[in-house]
């Protein structure tokens, strides 16, 4: 073969290879385009929260379930499939009914049917697991009255006109001191003073650092007394003649900051007072006026309830309850209530409308899973009277007494409300106080004819101690 023949063959092969590469490139381009046109919309739908429904044979928007619990690290299962430990966000859930189960060693299991909404986060963030075994520990016997300090580390205990202060294990912090018969006990916000109101109208204060009891003669005619939330050792008292008094316990000095007052309450930064002209005044803690709100002339106001953030609820003489909105308008909440109270975050109100029914009204919680803003839901209705209602730690539960039973009830009304009977007071008044983060309860229990102050642990953690009733 000549050189010219070789060149001709080489040129032919090069042309053929170039043609093949163009064909391959064209085929690759067309294949990529087809894949993009096919998978692109699916990827977009996936990113938007849609999944292919096996039963429906079409794409459907999925939801997310956010689960939080006390204790943390509890096992989460949805529709029988374990999805991790709390706190947990369970994604890619098809819309519709889903069974949530939360379990932890040593605790009663939790189960609830929830409705998963497409394209939304469904929340179950207030789950509290209760130990399988609940055991009480007696801290003191023969107790008439007690009060838990704001720091949740000390208890003032009154027995036979003697007061002492103990820690949450029963150890003595302040030795016994003889006092007048005591009614209400009120700790200062910094847990350094304890105010005692006596049945005869007198008042006295205990200085825990010094272990002394100081009579407060200037407050002997007070109809309502609270501690100043910011100024240490300062009391605010409404006297029977309508004067609002600020009294400095340490200095023994007082000053009138308002008069012609019928009711008052404090937030973390303000004092709210209602005068005889039915005007609601907002004052600074230094008594400088910030705002004035006119109220209806009738009926009269009997009680103010104010959150630390300054949200105001007003109870009227005829039993009506209203909330002052951010636009300074009165929003009716209930026509007739027996008791009410703000949740710890100041966004919900519990309402007791009759002796055996308790509702929760959502004032401002946009994230609440079961109660829309501006609506109320029935939480508990029993055949027996409910009393001594208070919010439990975190605001997801209420604790109250029914006959001689201490009952804890969740406020999540979806599916059904879980309730737990924690203990029996043996026909006594419990005066229940909730310990730090709800890990411990303190209450009075009739124990063989004597009233004992007991502690109930609400954790099954192996590092926590449990006790038998009657042990020291």
The largest beta-sheet arranges its strands as 5-4-7-8
Q: What class would the helix/strand composition place it in? A: mainly beta
Q: With helices defined by DSSP (H or I, 4 residues minimum), what is the helix count?
A: 1
Could you name the CATH class of the domain at 58-128? Answer: Mainly Beta
* CATH homology group of the domain at 58-128: Immunoglobulins
Shape: globular
Segments where pLDDT lies below 50 for 5+ residues? 41-52, 462-472
Give the strand content: over 45%
The CATH architecture of the domain at 58-128 comes to Sandwich
Query: What is the name of the CATH topology of the domain at 58-128?
Result: Immunoglobulin-like
- Bin the helical content: under 10%
Whole-Å distance between the termini?
Answer: 114 Å
């Amino acid at each position: 073969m000549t050189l010219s023949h070789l060149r001709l063959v080489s040129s032919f092969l090069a042309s053929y290879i170039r043609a093949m590469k163009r064909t391959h490139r064209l085929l690759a381009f067309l294949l990529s385009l087809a894949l993009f046109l096919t998978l692109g919309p699916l990827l977009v739908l996936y990113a938007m929260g849609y999944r292919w429904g096996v039963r429906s044979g079409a794409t459907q928007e999925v939801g997310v379930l956010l689960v939080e619990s006390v204790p943390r690290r509890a096992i989460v299962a949805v529709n029988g499939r374990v999805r991790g430990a709390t706190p947990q966000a369970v994604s890619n859930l098809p819309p519709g009914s889903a069974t949530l189960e939360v379990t932890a060693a040593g605790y009663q299991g939790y189960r609830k049917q929830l409705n998963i909404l497409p394209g939304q986060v469904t929340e179950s963030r207030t789950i509290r697991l209760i130990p399988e075994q609940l055991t009480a520990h007696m801290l003191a016997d023969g107790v008439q009255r007690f009060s838990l300090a704001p720091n949740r580390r000390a208890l003032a205990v009154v027995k036979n006109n003697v007061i002492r202060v103990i820690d949450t294990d029963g150890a003595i912090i302040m030795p016994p001191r003889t006092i007048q018969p005591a009614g209400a006990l009120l700790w200062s916000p910094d847990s350094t003073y304890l105010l005692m109101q006596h049945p005869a109208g007198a008042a006295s204060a205990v200085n825990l650092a010094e272990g002394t009891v100081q009579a407060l003669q200037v407050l002997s005619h007070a109809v309502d007394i609270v501690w100043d939330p910011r100024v240490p050792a300062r009391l605010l008292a409404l006297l029977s003649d309508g004067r609002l008094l600020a009294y400095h316990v340490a200095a023994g000095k007082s000053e009138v900051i308002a008069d012609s007052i019928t009711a008052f309450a404090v937030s973390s930064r303000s004092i709210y007072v209602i005068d005889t002209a039915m005007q609601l005044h907002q004052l600074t803690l230094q008594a400088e006026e910030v705002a004035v709100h006119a109220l209806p002339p009738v009926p009269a106001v009997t009680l103010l309830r104010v959150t630390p953030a300054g949200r105001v609820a007003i109870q009227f003489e005829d039993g009506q309850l209203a909330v002052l909105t951010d636009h300074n308008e009165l929003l009716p909440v209930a026509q007739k209530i027996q008791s009410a109270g703000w949740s710890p975050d100041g966004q919900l109100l519990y309402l007791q409308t009759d002796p055996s029914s308790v509702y929760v009204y959502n004032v401002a919680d946009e994230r609440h899973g079961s109660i829309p803003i501006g609506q109320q839901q029935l939480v508990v209705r029993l055949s027996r009277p409910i009393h001594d209602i208070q919010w439990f730690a975190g605001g997801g539960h209420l604790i109250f007494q029914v006959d001689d039973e201490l009952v804890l009830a969740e406020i999540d009304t979806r599916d059904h409300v879980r309730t737990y009977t924690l203990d029996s007071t043996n026909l006594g008044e419990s005066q229940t106080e909730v310990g730090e983060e709800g890990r411990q309860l303190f209450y009075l229990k009739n124990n063989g004819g004597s009233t004992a102050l007991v502690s109930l642990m609400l954790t099954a953690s192996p590092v926590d101690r449990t006790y038998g009733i009657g042990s020291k």
